[in-house]
Amino acid sequence: MIIQPFVSDLLGATAYLIGDEQAKEAVVVDAPHAITDALIVAAQRYGLRIRYIINTHGHFDHVADNVALKAASGAAIAANPGDADRLARPESVLFQLPFVIPPSSIDHPLHEGDTITLGSITLRILHTPGHTPGSICIYDEQHAMLFTGDTLFAGTYGRTDLRGGDEAQMFASLTRLAALPPATRVFPGHGDDTSIGAERWLARVSMLAHFTR
Questions:
Q1: Which residues pair with residue 116 across a beta bridge?
Q2: Mutual orientation of helices 167-178 and 202-211 as an angle, nearest 10°?
Q3: Distance CA 98, CA 70 (A)
Q4: Cα–chain-centroid distance for residue 35?
Q5: Which residues is 27 bridged to in the sheet?
Q6: Domains parsed from the chain with CATH numbers
Q7: What gap in Å lies between CA 210 and CA 123, rounded to an integer?
Q8: At CA 128, angle to CA 201 and CA 114, rounded to 5?
Q9: Fewer C-beta neighbours within 10 Å, C or N terminus of the chain?
Q10: Is 150 in contact with 55 (CB distance < 8 Å)?
Q11: What is the pLDDT of residue 207?
Q12: What does each of the 213 residues of the chain score in pLDDT, given as a tens digit?
């Protein structure tokens, strides 16, 4: 199994190449700014065909290279329909960007419980709203790996004060992730990887979510 991160110059957003060496198939988790060339080189080096570009959510720093990467790889864009409008209008609400992000659309809708199979790898979609309505995490139970986008980071969680954010939904999503096996390795959309067990504060969030229902 191949997992290779690619960190963008735009807000440090991270893409992940996930590949099965036997099946020669891959997906890319998120497509931040200016990562296409490096991703294509890596996929070619491993002899992988990129089947899907999976967007964990639709914020501009995670979808900036959707169009470029799709054109270079022929991969389909896969995301939850709850963030379709963000892919269609991927502008920054935080600051003026020095470039224009082209709009993209969902080729392969992803919903709770859907799976994507790459040879021996099965990736299951967990719908985890809170940061955005269409936020998802990608869970490989067999290899104990979780790709969390901006839902869960090392030591903290994604913002809920932007358009479409919801604190109650975020706490519910984090409570769900906290129930995964402690050894589950977490690959977030920004920053260092961690594990469910290392994020002990998740237990406090779970308790708070229980009392705020």
A1: 123
A2: 130
A3: 22
A4: 15
A5: 18, 52
A6: 2-211 (3.60.15.10)
A7: 29
A8: 135
A9: C
A10: no
A11: 62
A12: 999 999 999 889 999 999 999 999 999 999 999 999 999 999 999 999 999 999 999 999 999 999 999 999 999 999 999 999 999 998 766 667 778 899 999 999 999 999 999 999 999 999 999 999 999 999 999 999 999 999 999 999 999 998 899 999 999 999 999 999 999 999 999 999 999 999 999 988 766 555 545
- Give the torsion through C-alpha atoms of 109, 83, 87, 186, to 10 deg: -80
- Dig out the tokens for 204 from the structure: 């406090």
Identity of residue 209? A
Give the distance, in angstroms, between the CA of residue 86 and the centroid of all CA atoms in the same chain: 14
Six-digit token string for 93: 């609400």
In angstroms, the CA 150 to CA 190 distance is 7
Element (H, E) at 162: none
